[in-house]
Amino acid sequence: MTSEPVLAVSSLVKRFGDVTAVDGVGFELMPGASLGIVGESGSGKTTTARILAGLDAPTSGTVLLDGEPVTGRSRRARLRRARLLQMIFQDPYGSFDPRQSIAASIAEPMRLHLPGTAADRRARVAELLDQVGLSERAGASLPRDLSGGQRQRAAIARALGIRPRVLVLDEAVAALDVSIQAQILTLLDGLRRDTGIAYVFVSHDLAVVRHITDTAVVMRHGRIVERGDTERILREPRHPYTRLLLDSIPVPGWDLDRVARDRRALDPSS
Ligand SMILES: Nc1ncnc2c1ncn2[C@@H]1O[C@H](COP(=O)(O)OP(=O)(O)OP(=O)(O)O)[C@@H](O)[C@H]1O
């Protein structure tokens, strides 16, 4: 059986006035796969992610979710997109209603998208809390009473509730301590194995991308400059920009002067 990509992006362009934030980006994501989008600040990663989630409209290009375009702005189109694709942000604090319990927030997308009674939703919320490693007590708490790591677990539970096919994670662990990062990445790995969900994982952190993705694209100035298996890209980068990104990771014996020289050679205006 050959399966079709769950997400297919082609010739995506986004301009903000004179700035071309995304410039001809294309990639495919198979069901259950995990794709990294890496690059420095300003390379166009977040804009790409926002277009996938329908938060920005592309200037041109197509995004197909399960074979159908998702650029429509009608209520029906938005509901369909949200049903198939959910997004997780760096700090989900702002996306939780501060007056509502975590459990009530997790139930909200189910209320919008799925049939079922309040009792069905309560049962599913209990299952989700367990799946992401949160206690019943955490479920009864308000967002402000949880740690950053707990809130990110809650955001994952809320996104998974309606069983989407794709999760887009934009710097989802960037604000967390390294040990908490590792816990969340391990949780995400397990959830992918158990549910067959696919990830688009946007990150500037190559160590994180190595852990969580199978393939990756490297973006620079809105374009994809390199793509392939994540391990290969990190082991044998082919594009000078990817090499520069790798050389920019601080390690013992790190040569800051060399990194600065390489950067000037690649980008004389920097
Ligand atoms: N709403 C906007 N209006 C104008 N310019 C924008 C807007 N959003 C992004 N840009 C510009 O588009 C380019 C790409 O930004 P984007 O946020 O997608 O990059 P990024 O790789 O995600 O970086 P970061 O990690 O800093 O968010 C940048 O030059 C940015 O200034």
UniProtKB/TrEMBL annotation:
An example molecular function term from Gene Ontology annotations: ATP binding
UniProt domain ABC transporter: residue ranges: 7-246
Classification via PROSITE patterns: ABC_TRANSPORTER_1, ABC_TRANSPORTER_2
Coiled-coil region(s): none
Database matches in Pfam families: ABC_tran (PF00005), oligo_HPY (PF08352)
UniProt cross-references to Gene3D superfamilies, sorted A to Z: P-loop containing nucleotide triphosphate hydrolases (3.40.50.300)
Keywords in alphabetical order: ATP-binding, Nucleotide-binding, Transport
Gene Ontology process terms (BP): peptide transport; transmembrane transport
InterPro entries per the UniProt record, alphabetical: AAA+_ATPase, ABC_transp_ATP-bind, ABC_transporter-like_ATP-bd, ABC_transporter-like_CS, Oligopep_ABC_C, P-loop_NTPase
Entry similarity comment: Belongs to the ABC transporter superfamily.
The protein, known as: ABC transporter ATP-binding protein
Organism of derivation: Actinomadura montaniterrae
